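Regression test case RT-17, inverse folding.

Input:
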């Protein structure tokens, strides 16, 4: 009799405990186009009372007096965001979080191209960065033991000036800004600053948030850096610290392995590693506005030289703003191409 009473009391206590246990469910879509309103709601599985809830997108608090809301996300950057519900109940509080991906509101425009001019290019240059300035190309080459910065004559491909990096460094992207040359290294976590005229190295800087250095450009106010992921970083021009970033997304997926960069007429142009294409990215949102397939350039160069499919791919973008000329080349390619993009 004692055992039966004890068992009944145990079952009753268990039922009360299960009923009073709070199990919150935060409902959001997994991904959503940026031109749609985001709907967020919170429920409690056991129908227990919720006193109130505060919703956040990342650290920004959203206005609501209910357990659900609908809000515009059109002004947010694309990519991963964290939705947080701060729930108040029984004089307690609890955070419930869930990731949501904001996607582009439309598919990228598709471009083809035509070749305007062809110039010689050093077939021993493992091109990692390319810049146009005052009639010359400035180039950064990679691989340990062969990394350098160069000033190159466009018409002949002749190297007019060169400084080699120490063999421990793998050179990556470069950009010219305020009469300085800025160069990244791949996995060493540091970049270098040179005098534009003399190529004398003046200082080095460390990456503050990203792990690797891939491509580099600037928008006239900030340096812009890729790190091999979908992220593009904006650097303080004085401290060279990575202050903010965007993430490159189409309407269907993130675009990773962004490599060499160039800032052209308010957009970021990027090569993707091992893909012979140009990606055109909105620097404010991260939306991929356009994609240019340049595979036939690789086919063209293969008629003249042997190309390693894995490594010796399109890489190198330079723009002559004054004459509206776009230059591209590849790693160890023997040609530099001036091309014009044509929207399909």
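Golden output:
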């Amino acid at each position: 009799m004692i055992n039966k009473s004890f068992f009944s009391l145990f079952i009753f206590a268990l039922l009360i405990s299960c009923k009073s246990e709070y199990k919150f469910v935060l409902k959001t879509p997994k991904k959503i186009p940026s031109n749609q309103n985001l709907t967020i709601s919170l429920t409690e599985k056991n129908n227990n009372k919720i006193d109130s809830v505060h919703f956040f997108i990342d650290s920004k608090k959203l206005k609501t007096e209910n357990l659900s809301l609908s809000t515009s996300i059109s002004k947010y950057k694309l990519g991963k965001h964290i939705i947080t519900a701060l729930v108040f109940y029984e004089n307690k509080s609890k955070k419930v979080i869930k990731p949501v991906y904001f996607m582009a509101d439309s598919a990228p425009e598709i471009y083809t191209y035509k070749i305007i001019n062809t110039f010689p290019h050093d077939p021993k240059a493992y091109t990692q960065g390319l810049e146009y300035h005052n009639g010359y190309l400035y180039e950064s080459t990679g691989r340990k033991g062969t990394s350098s910065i160069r000033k190159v004559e466009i018409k002949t491909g002749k190297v007019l000036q060169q400084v080699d990096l120490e063999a421990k460094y793998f050179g990556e992207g470069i950009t010219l800004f305020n009469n300085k040359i800025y160069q990244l290294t791949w996995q060493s976590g540091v970049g270098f600053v040179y005098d534009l005229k003399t190529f004398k190295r003046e200082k080095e800087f460390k990456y503050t948030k990203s792990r690797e250095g891939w491509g580099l450009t600037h928008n006239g106010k900030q340096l812009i850096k890729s790190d091999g992921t979908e992220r593009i970083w904006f650097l303080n021009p004085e401290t060279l610290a990575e202050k903010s970033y965007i993430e490159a997304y189409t309407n269907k997926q993130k675009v990773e392995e962004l490599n060499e960069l160039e800032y052209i007429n308010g957009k970021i142009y990027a090569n993707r590693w091992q893909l012979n294409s140009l990606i055109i990215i909105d620097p404010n949102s991260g939306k991929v506005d356009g994609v240019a397939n340049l595979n036939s350039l690789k086919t063209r160069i293969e008629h003249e030289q042997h190309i390693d499919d894995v490594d010796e791919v399109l890489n190198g973008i330079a723009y002559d703003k004054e004459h509206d000329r776009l230059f591209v080349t590849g790693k160890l390619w023997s040609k530099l191409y001036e091309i014009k993009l044509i929207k399909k």
